[in-house]
Amino acid sequence: MADLLRPTFECTVPVEPARAEGLIRGVYERDGSPFVGQSVRSHMLITVERGRRHFWSPWVHVDVNPASDDSHASHVYARFSPAPSVWTGFMLTYIALLTIAMITGCWAFSQWMLDQPPTMLWGVAIPALLAIAMLWSARVGQRLARAQMRMLHDAVRGALEPAGDSSVGS
Description:
Elements: E1 8-13, H1 17-29, E2 35-40, E3 43-48, E4 59-67, E5 70-81, H2 84-113, H3 122-144, H4 146-160
Antiparallel strand pairs: 1-5, 2-3, 3-4, 4-5
Helix pairs in contact: 1-4, 2-3
């Protein structure tokens, strides 16, 4: 199932994992790069430089692992997300809405069991509507960040393409 909130791409490249990591690090380590990043072992986090960043600017998390069928190849998995602080706030808000919906749902069920009108069902409907609004805002944010997502995608994929070799797959 596709992740609507955090788009992904992956590929297998005919280079060893350590070399693939170095090629991807070059995306943000070379002089004049429009990207910044950091890495811990085979995991890298890359985004656009601070001057170009806005609220919806994407960050791409890249993991490089040995390919399962070839020890001299690498499997690269990349997932886009908003800034870590934005993503954390987004998910905590979803958790809070779910908690409110569950509590008010239990309250409404209790009202129903006591032969009272389940007026607390509004406490389920309102968080559900807010969650839908948040999903919609995330989709709008992805559209606003599309150009930067394309830049990051092309930079990572371009770094992995060996000179003259178009064997990088999706």
